[in-house]
Amino acid sequence: MFKTISDAADCEVRSVIRFLNANNIKPAEIHRQLVEIYGENVIIDGMVRKWVRQFNDGSTNVHDEARSGRPSVVNDGLVAKVNEKIRENRRFTIRTLFDEFPQISKVVLHEIVTNRLNYRKLCSRWFPKMFTDVHRTK
């Protein structure tokens, strides 16, 4: 019995596919071995065939190709401006920030405040997450 590997990276699985394909193992057998080692949800059989076909066509890249996507509106300058507005008024709401920055959605503003700036809501004021419980009670 083999040891099961969980949380395998996609490039790792593709490297195994490339190796087994180089040893002239059929895609169905490659899929069976992958499921045996990595578990049921590792990769579907059609994806094994796709990668075997790509490797047979001469591809050697096992990593995901860069994709064009929607560019992020969040940059360091914007985060600094939002932080400046927060420091002006600690009793802000996401809605009042939205009035100051109408080009940014409320969801993105909330993400900037909570994830990038690490603020948490405490009563009606926002505090950085690094405050301890003693600081919050003061």
UniProtKB/TrEMBL annotation:
Phylogenetic classification of the source organism: Eukaryota, Metazoa, Ecdysozoa, Arthropoda, Chelicerata
InterPro entries per UniProt: Mos1_HTH, Transposase-MT_Hybrid
A matching Pfam family: HTH_48
Name listed for the protein in its UniProt record: Mos1 transposase HTH domain-containing protein
Annotated ranges, domain Mos1 transposase HTH: 14-58
Source organism, top-level taxon: Eukaryota
